[in-house]
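Researcher: Please predict.
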Amino acid sequence: MKQEPEITDPKTVDSGELAAYIRGLSFVAVHLMCFGVIWVGWSWVAVAVAAALYLIRMFAITGFYHRYFSHRTFKTSRWFQLVFAVVGSSAVQKGPLWWAAHHRHHHGHSDTDEDVHSPIRKGFFYSHIGWIYEPKNGDTRKRLVPDLSTFAELRFLNRFDALVPTLLGVATFFLGVAINALRPEWGTNGMQMLIWGFFISTVVLFHGTAAINSFAHLFGRRRFDTNDHSRNSFLLALLTLGEGWHNNHHRYPAATRQGFYWWEIDITYLGLFLMSKLSLIWDLKPVPAPVLASGLHAPNKGASR
């Protein structure tokens, strides 16, 4: 398959700058829509839907966009791969090929000048948000994901990455309309469900994911002496269903689990483990015994840089 160059001619650069500008406006618009809660109020059902969509989509990002598409830490069927590619796409974090390619690049250059989102090199704000809106980072680094690029359905989701989020937004609106008609005593409606179920949930989800790029390279503990500044954080592990064990992950990224020890809560791994028992996924890669043993005897250095 012929690989497209990341930068070709002035027209490509101009289109990349336009796309970055549009992404920037969209990012601001999604955040501003959250202020709609002032007018639509809240209800328990709307908050519950927002929480459920946060958890489901976070699991899709952590379990599949990250541990499967980026690191191939387990195997699954083509149809189940597609299911979670669609769910992951609904998180408004672009397509699975783009996400995996940039993450693989990150691991190859973590906290060096080549790392696209290192807070050590480029500051907190850039690592948390700014890097996504650089024109050069808008394209998919296809040479880094040749294994994923063979699937036409993944290429489709990657190219039309706004499709699934748009459908989810429409679905949350009409869910609110339907609940208002069937259960008016629940106190919700279309706009309230759209604000909570889509916009608020999506914004919290984005910042939870982005916190691993930024906070997890600045604050926390270092069990392993890796070549970067990755750190473990119990709080981030709770917020991101297990991704907060970031120093563990950078020590051995090929493992399915990131909470290496029983006391390190890794909800994503528990979900994947249950899926393996249902034969939906298989061949989960373990943490090698020598890695586990070395971590038990490590000094687990404190939170300062």
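Model: The first strand starts at residue 75 and ends at 76.
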